[in-house]
Amino acid sequence: MAAAENDREAPSALCNEFLNFSAKDTAAKWLLASNLHKEVYQHLACYVPKIYCLGPNLNPQNEDLLAPLLLQSPLEWYLCGEEPSVGLAKLEQNNQPSQLCGHVFKVGEPTYSCRECAADPTCVLCMQCFLGSVHKEHRYRMTTSGGGGFCDCGDTEAWKKGPYCQKHEPNNNDSSQKDPLANMTEEMIARTYNVFSIILKYAVDMLTWDKEDELPEGLEPPVRGDTYYCMLFNDEVHTYEQVIYTLQKAVNCTQKEAVSFATTVDRDGRKSVRFGDFQFCEQAKSVIVRNTSRQTKPLRVEVMHSSVVAHQCFALKALTWLGQIIRYSDALRRILCQVGLQRGPEGENSSLVDTLMLCDSKMWKGARNVYHQLFMSSLLMDSKYKKLFAIQFAKNYERLQSDYVKDDHDREFSVTDLSVQMFTVPSLARMLITEENLMTTIIRTFVDHLRHRDLQGRFQFERYTAQQAFKFRRVQSLIGDLKYVLISRPTEWTDQLREKYLEGFDAFLELLKCMQGMDPVVRQVGQHIEMEPEWEAAFTLQMKLTHIISMMQEWCASDEKVLIEAYKKCLSALTHCHSGFTDGEQPITLCMCGHSVDTIRYCVSQEKVSIHLPVSRLLAGLHALLSTTEVAYRFPEQLPLSELSPPMLIEHPLRCLVLCAQVHAGMWRRNGFSLVNQIYYYHNVKCRVEMFDKDLIMLQAGASMMDPNHFLMIVLSRFELYHIFSSADCRKRYSRENAHKDVVQQNNTLIEEMLHLVIMIVGERYTAGVGQVESSDETRREIVHQLCIRPMAHSELVKALPENENKETGMERVIDSVALFKKPGVTGRGLYKLRPECAKMFNLYFHHYSRADQSKAEEAQRKIKRQNGEDSVLPPPVLPRFCPLFASLVNILQCDVLLGILGAVLQWAMEHSGGHWSESMLQRVLHLIGMGLVEEQQHLLSSADDNDTNFNFTLKISRPGEAPANTPSILALLETLQNAPHLEVHKDMIRWILKTVANIKTTRECTASAPPSDSSGHSQEETVRDKDKAERKRKAEMARLRREKIMAQMSEMQRHFINENKELFQQSLEELDPSTSSTLEHSPSSCDSALVCVGPRRWRAGGSERRQMVTCILCQEEQEIRTDGKAMVLAAFVQRSTVMSKNRKRPPHNPDKYDPLFMHPDLSFGTHTGSCGHIMHSHCWQRYFEAVQAKEQRRQQRLRVHTSYDVENGEFLCPLCECLSNTVIPLLPLTKTSCSSEQPDLSQWLSITSQQMKALLSAHRKAADAEGVDAMDGVNDCPPPDGFRLDYTPKNPYSSTIKEMLTTFGTATYKVGLKVHPNEQDPRVPIMCWGSCAYTIQCIERLLVDEEKPLFGSLPCRQDDCLSSLTRFGSACWTVSSHTTVQNHFIRLLAALVPDPRVENTPCVLDIDMFHLLVSLVLSHPAVLCLDSSGLSADAAQLHFLHLVTVAHIVQILLTSVPEEMRMEQEGGGAEREEEENACMLYNTLRTHLGSGLHEVSSGWHLWRCVKAGILPYLRAAALFFHYLNGAPAPPELHTLGAGELEALCGYLCLPSNLLQLYYNNRELMEPLLHGWCSHPGVLQGLQSSVALIRFPRESNRLIELPGDYSALINQASSFTCPKSGGDKSRAPTLCLVCGAMLCSQSYCCQTELEGEDVGACTAHTFACGAGVGIFLRVRESQVLFLAGKTKGCFYAPPYLDDYGETDQGLRRGNPLHLCQERYRKVQKLWRQHSITEEIGHAQEANQTLVGIDWQHL
Ligand SMILES: [Zn+2]
Ligand SMILES: [Zn+2]
Ligand SMILES: [Zn+2]
Ligand SMILES: [Zn+2]
Ligand SMILES: [Zn+2]
Ligand SMILES: [Zn+2]
Ligand SMILES: [Zn+2]
Questions:
Q1: Looking at the record, which segments are called Disordered (predicted)?
Q2: Can you count the helices (H) and strands (E) in the chain?
Q3: Alpha-carbon distance 1726 to 1729, whole Å?
Q4: Higher model confidence: residue 1742 or residue 678?
């Protein structure tokens, strides 16, 4: 590394030279130069290597300072001819900026598009422009930018309306036409031209330079050292891990450095990983190459000379500089464009811009980004040059795409990505099509890249390699380009455009021809297929092309000439396809019902068949479009229809539909899932528009041109059903065909499918061109049928409707006419419900229903009808009329073959048993008959005027069947069936048919045009019983139909059921739970005084009231809670908490050294205990837990999966409610105390206690001495007071199991609270238990305030039980600890109140949370009291503690009170005069102790107000504590909200309502204490320090405020940069909802080490901010994230909703989102009540995939 050392010295040596440099002089020299190019190059050759790349680490500070000074400044001087700042300002002033906003988007920045006005969805606005635009009030879409692209504000072509925002509104005179150069002097133009051409050339040369050790001519450095860089380049093949691992090996760096290298390589595209002499770098290179070449191609590494790297660095800088300088003036920008596009010496495509584009794939990411940015801010911003650039881009298109396909970088880093900026501009797109033949170029380029064909020239994706798959993925972006070009349809056509479009159409047909018939399948018989064939690639292609195909048709539709030409071309393409493959088809003749037709022999079940028929389908689309034209109506003979061969048209679509039918019938089971998937997508909303729908249209088109009998015979033949219906005695199927049962079943399904197809061919008329409808009618009908299934949310409807290329469904225009919107509540989402009057449009055989949809819709519709008291029959709806070209289709209904089929099925149905017909089959037949009748009614209605009625369905069905069978007519059959007992289900339909027939007959008879009466009338004779029976039968039938589906959903439903009912289950249990019986509360008091909870006068429970019976949830045995009984425990969850923290900046404590005895009033870390309230025997629980442990061990060994709970950490799920738990709390009875009379008053008691303390202290010290621990001298031997037996060891009253459980819970609290290993001997165990008790009570107190609930009586039972057992446990936990330890704790605690010089490290009153102190004192005191035999009572002591702590708290409040605001009026002053004066006096006493430390206050009113407000939370917490400790019921005033709370609390706590009397009544005693507190040095320090004091009352913490509009958050996140990787955009910005910190989540750059593991930013933050629990908002995803620890997490619905009452997780829909306060409060409540971890547990139990996520990396 010697070289490096030397070089670092260089800059300082050169400093002088730099200082003497004058940019002005240099520029002046250049002005005189004859060869400016040479001069500038010399300058660069000299200076660039002196500034850039001088050491291993680049030194940006130096460069940023020196480069402008030495390199850019002379250029600017030269350009301006004067001081640059002056010159540039002048330029800016003269500039008339164009009206384009052109703001370039950052990654993740919000973009807005108007669904109503944008020319296409790529037209977007930046946030600023959007807010100033008219579209704000429109229906808009909000997305986040992927980076790149710019704001289209001001582009009149991008917006149909409102192209300008307020800011970019052009001022009246039209400046856009003026030449921007007009304002500039000739000289300046010339100078600018010179500079730009030299610098741009330099930059282009350097960035495209591929020699590692040489420089271009004229740039060779004066001195050349042996300094090299080992440069590592980015690729998308190697993973982060591979790169990091390799680097550690190759250049001996730490893992951290390697991560940083890898991150930079990924971001910038390259990074030097070693600097030094050539040898040194070469060595690293070889290691890297060797290590990465094994599986894939090696990482790209180059050893480059430092001067080359330096010039490349400056070249990037120079491009950035160009981008900056052209911002001053449009004139500069135009000159730069001119320079860039000027043709170079090599002729065509040799300009600098061309050179850059053509080298794009060779450059590294960073370089590409910089020059793409420059293109965007120059070429694409200049109207004239944008066009010229677009032409160059189009000329190079094929080459650029080929480079891109070979390259491995993402498209956003490729120059090809700029296509969207040009191709979406309609005028440019049109120009490129006509002048550069762009359409043809794109399509040809695309086809060229898909080279895998079969013998017939069709695409073949089978057996294609990963390499080809990769290429296939990349080449798909060409389809995107084609889409851009086609997205706006021309309003006017020129002959040239027609010519070029049709040329493109030809190319497109070539593409489709390669797809026609691809991926053919053959039915597998015998064995199951061995390997699932590849099918996805072909479908991907189809899916990607779907919109293109639709757009092609729309272009054709906009010009009649083009349409007819395109139609001809398509037809000849189809003919060509058909001639291509003849699968040995033999001609045959079919005869039926006196008709005959010639066709070929072909069986779908035996020969090849393909789902891909894009050419046929395109023709079908064009045919429907032709049908809408004027020509079709007036002169159909002019259409090229004569060339059509209808049988040829229908052949392939029919085969495809038969294939679907056969798959449904189970005939293709052995072909595996790939076929099932293909059929699924064929019908799926994403594909069906250009697949299934068009096949249907093709059949309609073909059938409309054929004799309906012929058509149906061919259909029967392809369905392989011809033999069934053609035989003379087909009506006796049951007797004849007793073949295999499976075959009969199969044929039944095929007949059903065939009938359904006929229904669809005649009935589907909602495509414009087929029926006389508009596209909005089609959408409306689609919506109606979705809503007939059930009410749906907006997003569900959107998903069910096909989207066009603009991602619009047309739903908004029509939804209100067919549906009503219902708003959501706190959960769920808004729903659309069908308008009742639209139900009549319902068609049971709607072609887009799946079988499941159909049965659901049928059930729902019948139910509604019944509820309305109507007949539940669902007759076919009235349909729109066919267009003339399709008009003949109605004749299918009355043709002989169909009537024959209908008659046959009805005849079969006469027979009850046999399985030779099915309910569905019959239902379809009845539906078809119904359709015929409805059609006839319509004809009668419309033909009333023109008197032309050749549609006479009733006549046809009244005629008896053909001879020889001489069978009954259809009508006769129906009349017979009407009474068949086995057909109850269909009776209502048959009845409806017969009635309608009667109606029609009457209409026909009265030649007058009396309209038929409503056909759904009720006949009286039918009995209710009949109907019921029919109903039951129908239900059975439905059940049969749904069985399959139900089976599939079974497991899903089970889980759902359990989840739904768990809550119910739990609730009812809580009601019954004996432990929650409220016998303890409200019972009459038995002792002397009423409703006091502390002190000698407190309420005492009688013997019977103390008995408490509970039931174990595991063994169901009842058990009494007794000190000496079997231990009963409560499932509990202990967690660390920062919910109440007032100081999130406090660093976490060192768990090994931290002394938790005193809680700081900032409550920064607490230990919270919660419980689900379920009770077990301790031994039952132990057995259960052991079983869980064992099961978990087995499971982990076998499956290696995580569970939602961590058994090794003692976690388990409550056996009843599955609530997450990690320990158990023992249940204890109330402690027995007797009302002892005479007790010492406070001063006596204090003196006794201090004597006791002295004795204890000296005894403890003596013991320590004896053990040889450092002895303390000067401690006098203090004699203990009377009755105080130092050597006494009290008997533990608890049974062994209770003792065990006391230890268990204590240890768990200690372990979790301090994050340490369990150690039951640790002296901090009892402290943690008391702390958890105090903290939990404080939390609950806050929660009750926040929820505006009264202190008592509103807690759920489980919390009530939890607090009560937690408190009683607290009072008992000393019994299992070392008594000496607890006594010592007590001594130290007391010293904080009664200063004691012998006790050290006592905190000052400002640093103590008084409630914690109170709880600890009360709970530790028994360890001292037990030594006393003189009759001191615990009750008296508790009261004394309460008094002392309360006074201390009042002092604390006064010390920290905020100075009074400037306000004069004192409402209500005087009513509490005494208190106010007392407060004032006490405050002044404090001032005498502290002097200037306290500000002056004159108003006692203000002070008393502070005290009252400040002390309330403490009193409330104390009331809860003593309530649970002593079991005293609370007075009724505390069961309600309202005034007088303070008085009620004081009464209950045995305190005077003037709290200051506590001080004044014992003034002599208190004065020294006060003095002691104030003289603690900490007090003055605290008051004077700049750190904010904790003031009282402490406000409840809330989650941060969120903005009302979600895009404000997106905007905030988009300007957030990763804090670790220097200004880089963060990929997953995530907001902590607790503290508002924005984090760079889910990314390597921000991983940190936590307890020896690498964790993501969120997990790391969670530990600091939430003590392990975190609540985040993932901004890009619009998703709430809950984290707990390192392994647990779940996603939660965000509190943002769109106008349809739905969330948008993943921001996929892009509807504007607004904050829903109610939902946000729900999240806040979960947090405040410490339920986040529990919520995660439930989420993970419900959704196992959540368990597998690596939460710690978020
Ligand atoms: Zn803008
Ligand atoms: Zn604007
Ligand atoms: Zn708009
Ligand atoms: Zn039990
Ligand atoms: Zn439970
Ligand atoms: Zn936070
Ligand atoms: Zn980061």
A1: 1004-1036
A2: 64, 25
A3: 5
A4: 678
